[in-house]
Amino acid sequence: MDKDLLIFIPTYNEKENVRLIIEGLRFNLPGVPILFCDDSSPDGTSELLRQLAKEFGGIEVVTRASKLGIGSAHKFGIHRAAELGYQRVLTLDCDLTHQPSDCARFAAHSCGDIVVGSRFRGSNSMADWNFMRKAITRVGHLATCLLLGIPYDATGALRRYRLDRVGVDWLKKVKSDGYAFFFESLMVLNSRGAEIDEISIDLPKRTCGSSKMSVFELFRSFIMLLSLAGTRFRINQRSV
Ligand SMILES: Nc1nc2c(ncn2[C@@H]2O[C@H](COP(=O)(O)OP(=O)(O)OP(=O)(O)O)[C@@H](O)[C@H]2O)c(=O)[nH]1
Ligand SMILES: [Mg+2]
Prior knowledge:
The protein has helices spanning about 20-30, 45-55, 70-85, 100-110, 130-150, 165, 180-190, 215-240, and strands at about 5-10, 35-40, 60-65, 85-90, 115-120, 160, 195-200. By secondary structure, it is α/β, with parallel strands linked by helices. A 7-stranded mixed sheet has the order 3-2-1-4-6-5-7, sandwiched between helices. The N and C termini lie far apart (about 40 Å). The structure holds guanosine-5'-triphosphate and magnesium ion.
């Protein structure tokens, strides 16, 4: 592995955000290559990304045939980074809730096999969000801490993985292709003894485009959470 860092961003209908995120990343992390994985967004995100790739350089755009899920996109991005020989991969959302200036902090952070952004370390890191969204996030955090035993912010996508230390074999153990990918991946890495570190982040609200987190996705993640908690409970029972 001779290349240092790759930035990975999954997209689905993010036409309004892609130029802004590329400009922000180029300003804060000049020269760091970016890989986008777009699931044939109906709004033409892939086509715009291809134009921007020509304009900016150092950008790869992979368009998949259909919407395969955010977790599936992250699995693809992490695999591709390892395949291309990168030591580290930095993953984030395209909606500017993960701020390019924070990405620079993640890139500079040397501790931890995995570094995750935490919304629970700062005093008011979700200031823009409405009550309902804050409540869902806090309940999700409590549930992943208590039921899965992972005391980190496990549902966010802003992360830095040290592929030279953790490799990609662990991905075979991660079944979720949707939003549950985030807590399932952290649980798998934690169980394998990976060193997990957190960086406090502020998360502004998305200003352009719309959320892809539907009630159905929320429900699917909840079922996955219960299933993982059940597996953990059975393993603990066997070992006593
Ligand atoms: N390739 C791909 N990207 C996806 C898919 N679903 C979501 N995304 C992208 O994943 C990132 C996170 O999705 P969001 O809709 O912002 O989800 P969220 O962060 O939970 O919700 P809000 O920030 O509240 O809107 C964005 O960059 C999306 O475009 C998918 O099925 N495939
Ligand atoms: Mg988002």
